[in-house]
């Protein structure tokens, strides 16, 4: 089973049905729910998701969505060393650098699925868009 880190943008696409990206995100989450993939995200993602989703939905709806999400994704801790690596990494996007080092520290994760490929240009882990990743998966 493939272990993949799902970046925040892909999760938002899925949770709010953001077109045209939601179809591919939904397929990835279906594969995770079917246990054909093992999905990961960071604790930071949940905070970011709440912040973004709360602008368009009620607190209780957002919490319900995050609760459902927490049941299918493995949540990685953002530790002090993760933040320190991110601060000194030179990544153009600080949030993505935290996500990257959470994934890298996990050792099981073989791919980061994101629409922000350019932010991960020096990644030691494969980085793919949802569409490109799905082309590699046999279901």
Structure, described:
This protein has 139 residues and is α/β, with parallel strands linked by helices. The chain has one domain: 3-Layer(aba) Sandwich (Rossmann fold). It has helices spanning 8-15, 22-33, 43-53, 59-70, 80-87, 94-106, 130-136, and strands spanning 2-6, 37-42, 74-76, 111-113, 126-128. It has a five-stranded parallel β-sheet with strand order 3-2-1-4-5, with helices on both faces. The protein starts with a strand and ends with a helix.
Tags for this model:
single chain, 139 residues, alpha/beta, Rossmann fold, five-stranded parallel beta sheet, 7 helices, globular
Strand segment tally: 5
**CATH class call:** Alpha Beta
User: What's the oligomerization state?
Assistant: single chain
| Strand-residue proportion | 5-15%
Average pLDDT over all residues:
94
Assign a percent range to the helix content: 40-55%
Number of helices: 7
CATH topology: Rossmann fold
- The span between the termini is 11 Å
Low-confidence stretches: none
Largest β sheet strand count, sense and barrel closure: 5 strands, parallel
**CATH architecture assignment:** 3-Layer(aba) Sandwich
Summarize the helix and strand pattern as letters. Answer: EHHEHHEHHEEH
Strand order of the largest sheet: 3-2-1-4-5
User: In one word, what is the shape?
Assistant: globular
Task: Look at the structure and name the CATH superfamily.
Answer: 5'-nuclease
CA-based gyration radius:
14 Å
Count the domains.
Answer: 1
